[in-house]
Automatic annotation (TrEMBL):
It catalyses: 3',5'-cyclic CMP + H2O = CMP + H(+); 3',5'-cyclic UMP + H2O = UMP + H(+). Counteracts the endogenous Pycsar antiviral defense system. Phosphodiesterase that enables metal-dependent hydrolysis of host cyclic nucleotide Pycsar defense signals such as cCMP and cUMP. It comes from the Bacteria. Signal peptide: none annotated. Residues 26-96 form the Metallo-beta-lactamase domain. This is Metallo-beta-lactamase domain-containing protein.
Length: 305
């Protein structure tokens, strides 16, 4: 049996693909999908490119950790082009938003909301099941287990209330509400704990903050690979988190253009002070790899062009 996690260089954004193969049996899980049009750069690899290049004929499950466009934009590349067993998410849209025809890309948060509405509509049209997660949930794929870790419920309720109150006919009058929604998306993202052969192997952290981990500390001890929260944001990493997870490898999903000033220059210093983990960037100055691959059997890292 083989099992790999591939972190794609999607520029500023995140997309990870887990593939488990055992003879004629296989399982493919995608966690987030990167942004729109990331394949315009030759050294990057969009989710759509990856699916074509590796001949993947089905995505068994697609997890959307939250609906910022740098995490969901690439979904459109694969919808209708490869079968998807189900989409898993935890932030449903109120009817007045999901039934709207919002298509406003004038700001990042409006572009994110527009993309999310479009993705959910297209999934419904294609008959793709959408599973709404409301509590920690375990998904199994052959020898791999994926535990979806939920955010703080009070924060999630605040996000839902803001979405319920959003008036799509008067968006120009709701800048403060849109800003709150934008910030709450990171605060209410999902994380994914991957176990393989009954051992913790990787922790995919999306954009979550430090307080996210309080209920999960016993579950996230001694994990080989940690995905850096929020693209290498030094505010989202700490001595306590590094000591709990005790990672041997940290993967930072970011571009080399300093988008949103990430990753922070202080990030590496915090890691080096409190950890012996090796740091890998999906993209950095002078890099040529398009994929960072973790082999879950060997616990090794490979850079793939």
């Amino acid at each position: 049996m083989t099992c790999v996690i591939d972190f794609l260089n999607v520029g500023f954004g995140e997309a990870a693909v887990v593939r488990v193969e055992d003879g004629q049996r296989s399982f493919c899980l995608v966690v987030d999908a990167g942004d729109l049009n990331c394949d315009k750069h030759a050294r990057r690899c969009s989710l759509g490119q990856y699916i074509r290049e590796y001949g993947i004929d089905k995505i068994d499950a697609l997890i959307l950790t939250h609906f910022h466009k740098d995490h969901i934009g690439g979904v459109h590349e694969v919808l209708g082009r490869v079968p998807i067993g189900e989409i898993l998410l935890h932030v449903p849209l109120p009817a007045h938003l999901s039934n709207s025809r919002l298509n406003d890309h004038s700001t990042p948060i409006l572009a994110s909301l527009s993309l999310y509405i479009s993705i959910l509509r297209q999934a419904e049209e294609l008959g793709i099941p959408v599973r709404q997660i409301s509590e920690p949930f375990v998904l199994s794929g052959l020898a791999a287990e994926f535990r979806l870790l939920m955010p703080n419920q009070a924060k999630l309720q605040r996000l839902q209330a803001e979405l319920e109150s959003l008036d799509v006919e008067a968006l120009n009058l709701q800048e403060e509400r849109l800003t709150r929604i934008d910030r709450l998306l990171n605060d209410t993202a999902l994380a994914v704990l991957i176990r393989y052969d009954n051992e913790p192997a990787a922790l995919l952290t999306s954009d979550v903050g430090l307080d996210f981990w309080d209920p999960y500390k016993p579950e996230i001890e001694n994990i080989f690979l940690l995905q850096a929260p929020h693209h290498g944001d030094s505010r989202n990493i700490s001595r306590a988190l590094l000591h709990t997870v005790s990672p041997q490898v940290i993967v930072v999903s970011a571009d080399d253009e300093g988008t949103y000033q990430l990753p922070h220059p202080e990030f590496e210093a915090v890691v080096q002070e409190h950890s012996e983990a090796r740091i890998y960037y999906t993209e950095e100055a002078g890099s040529t790899h398009r994929i960072i691959r973790m082999d879950l059997n060997e616990r090794t890292i490979h850079l793939i062009n």
